[in-house]
Request: fold
Amino acid sequence: MNPRQPKLAVDCIIRVGDKVLLIHRRNEPVGWALPGGFVEYGETVENAVRREMREETGLELADLEQFRVYSDPERDPRGHTVSVVFTARGIGQPNAGDDADRFRLASVEELHPDELVFDHFRILQDFARGRGRAQAG
Reply:
């Protein structure tokens, strides 16, 4: 008997100036998202996020920090996925690669809930609230 377990993923809020980088996914679920992907067996989450960001955006990461873990079983329509979310500053020229067909830079404040797939709107709202507290305090 094989027990069912959630899949482990990483996502990254990549800051480019005062905006964040979003990718448009060409695979289901199609739509705008934070760049990310699944952790491979034997890989640390830190190595996975660096690998996934190179594959999906062409960017290297500076100032990489773990932000939060998101584990709601309903967050991914493909099945129960736990994501370790990081923040980083993007280094280089972004480009769309891997399963992304294009990218865009957006301010968190201009985004709408129905624009993003998964729970990425919530993640970005949490990030914006955290940034506000840090700047105010």
DSSP finds two helices and seven strands in the chain.
